[in-house]
Structure formats: structure tokens, C-alpha cells
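Obj.: predict assembly geometry.
Materials: sequence records (below).
Method: joint structure prediction, all chains together.
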Amino acid sequence: MVHFKGGAAVRFGTGLDPTDMVRACAASALDDAGLTPTDVDQLVVANAAAEGLAGIGNVAVWTATACGLVDRPALRVETGPSSGLAALAVAAALVASGRAEHVLVLGWESMTGVPTAEATRVLSRLMAPDERRLDLSLPALVALLHTAYQARTGVSDEAIARVPVKAHALARTNPLAHFQREITVEEVLASRFVAAPHRLLHCAPLSDGAAGLVVGNDGPVRLVGLGAATDHLGLTQRRGPPERFEATATAAARAYADAGWSPEDVDVVELHDAFAVLEAVNLEDLGLAPRGAGLERVPRPCEALTVRPVVNPGGGLKARGHPVGATGVAQLLELFDQLTGRAANQVDGARRGLAHNIGGFGNNVHVACLEAAQ
Amino acid sequence: MSLSGSRCPSCGRVAVPPEPACLVCGARPGASEVPAEGAVLAWVRPTPEGLVVLVALAGEARILAEGGSPLEVGDPVFVSLTDGVPVARRREAGPGRR
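Observations (raw C-alpha cells):
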């Protein structure tokens, strides 16, 4: 059985030095797990775009050097923004097969050292050729999903705006969050268009950040299920409803089957809310809300830690921040903290948590099911 | 009016532009002319002046096109190529045309 032994993250934000944040994160994660660098059998690095965003290549060895793990085996896992959970899948296989006793999974991304337009251009490389030919960006692709979802469900702009309002309210009390101020529905709807109808405050920020977890064969939290699925690279290559991610539904079904769970078993979920409408879409694709009703279960901020399943208690990608390679590991760390009772925004009685991490535009999705060991 | 596409002889998948191999079953598709009429599935304004729409064509093929006129989800459109770029314009829906 694969367990989580401990972990840590740096506060996400802007202007962080890559070496400093990676070194600090690795040291804190190992300390939390009660280990030293010599105990680590393998380093698995989750990073999506260091070459383009930070001018750093040979990312696995660069990270091992920064962490003081120069004689350990190191590899890098890259599946775009789902690199964190994909890295967990690799680490879990190493531990489950007996090839490693302790694996440090370290996700990081440095995104604010280049202008926003350059970061957007680099991230758009994960899109399909016909999408790039029309100069679309990832926010523009999600705006397509946004208009399709609104047309199908009839939900209002105000209902969608309540998602980032809740996220910011939760992040305000998360000391590791990028944003620690509340926003209002009116502010969301008055923010500038990024790709209409998508507005700035619908979108997760570009963040710098690092998060690390130690995976081993004992520890206070168990990994009980994993699922992954891909979909066609391009939106025009798919045939399902454009307001859904079929890969999420498939990955979730595989993870639930692996864990022996049903959606009703989930106490707390860390889902990939890089854009506001995705909270509704993801809840439906994960089977946690009926089709078309994902926004009906977005609670008011004051009830956000009590309505089950609790969604993104640390503020999610929207407000905790979204350093893409670190995001999946940060989701797992939030669940680890929740299931060990030490989270900043603790969910009472949380025993089972689910993490959901999207790579590309809904085409490389990973889901993990975690359970308290005691 | 039609667009150059492909049809898979094995599973029937229709695609615009043509696919070199079927993305579902891997068979080699044959050339096919796909009617240029369809309906808007989604839209976005990537810039204040721009409009891009996702269009469902016949046979479930899909295409991204620039909007040549104001468009909403569900609007019937026809798609033509202007300097190689697909452009969707609203068409009046008549009996049997949607």
C-alpha cells in the first residue's frame, strides 16, 4: 500500500526565486516526513514548462541540485498542468513495486519571471494547431466552454461569479495562498474581459510556487485509488458535448473503481478550478453534482467548509494560485493536511479526499483518492 | 457549398480538415466533401473586435471559424474559406435546413 508520509509548500505568489523556493520546499517536506536527504531513494519532479517560462532545462537534475539530492535518481514528469498528479502516479508505482522506499514528489513552476504575454504564449503550446492558428489562448478555449455551458444550463453570470468569490474567501485564511483578500460578485463582473465572456477574476493567476510530498510504504494517509485518461488534443477533434471533459469522467470512474468508492464517499475534493466555470463542469464530470446543477451546490462562503463534499478548502487554483507544475502536488498536500486534521481551513471529520488535475485543455486528466490511515 | 474533409470507411467518422488517419479507429479515411452548413456550439471574443465560434457540421465534424457576423449558440451558419481561414456567417434556417 502506498502512503503519504509528510509534505510542505512555499506560499505561492510572484517574484519567487526558483532555486530558493525549490530548496526550501524540499527541506520542509522531508523534515515534515521525519526524513533526511539520504533517506530519499528517488526524486520525481513535476514541472510543465521550465524551459519556456524560466529558461531552465535538464529540469530533473536542476531540481535535484537545488534540493541537495545530487546523488539520487531524478526524473521529470510533464503532462502540462496535471504534471503533479501524474508525478504521483510514477512515485506510487515505484513504491508499490518495491523499487523505492521513499520518493520525494516535488512540483514547481516559475511563471512570473517573464511578461504575462510571453507566459500565455508558452502555455498555448499545449493547444492544437487549429486553435493556435486562430490566436486562441487557454482562457479563450475555456470561454468557449463557458458559453456552451451557459447555453445548455441557462445559469446566470452572477452564479458563475460566485465561484471565485468563494475561492477568495477561503484563501484569505490560508497562509500559503497567493491571494489573501476577498472579492465580490460585483468586482468579478466589473473586471476586464480576458476573452469575453471570460473576465480577469474568473481566471486563476500566473503564480510561482513549489509543493512537495514524501510517498512511502507507511504514513498517516493512504493512496487508495488512481485514475487517468486522455482525450483528443483539439476541441474540434472531439465529439462529445463541448461543455464537458470526457477525460475527467473516465479518469474519475477509474479512480473510484480502484478505490472501491462512489462519489458519495468523498468528504473533500480538490478540483481543477483554473477558471470559474470549471468548478461546475468538474463537479458534474466527477459525479459530485447532477448534470447542469454544478453551480447549484456552490455554497456561500460562510458555509463553504460544511456543505459536503467540501470543494477546494484552501482556495483552489483560483485563489491559492496556479504554478502549473506545483498545482497537483499542492492539491495532494491540501488533502494530506485535511486528512491529518492540520489544515488551515479544516473540514470537520474529513476522512476521504479526492484530487482532480487537468492537463492541457481537458485532455490529460488525473484523479487520486486518499484516505486517512487511522 | 462544401468543405474538404475526410470520412473513415471503418467507423464513419467525418472530419474537417481531412485527417491522415482516423483519430478513433486508426483506419485510413477517404476524401469527402462535407456540407458547409452547421450550427454554433460555442463562441468567444478573444479580442474586443474578434469573434471565434465552434461549429458543428454535418456528420458531427467540428470546425473553429472566425465569426463573420454576430452569432450566438445554436445559430445556423455556413462556413466558407477566406484566404484559407474558415469564416462562419449566419444563414436563415428554412424547413429541413437545421
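Conclusions so far: The longest strand of chain B covers residues 37-44.
To do: check interface contacts against the pulldown list.
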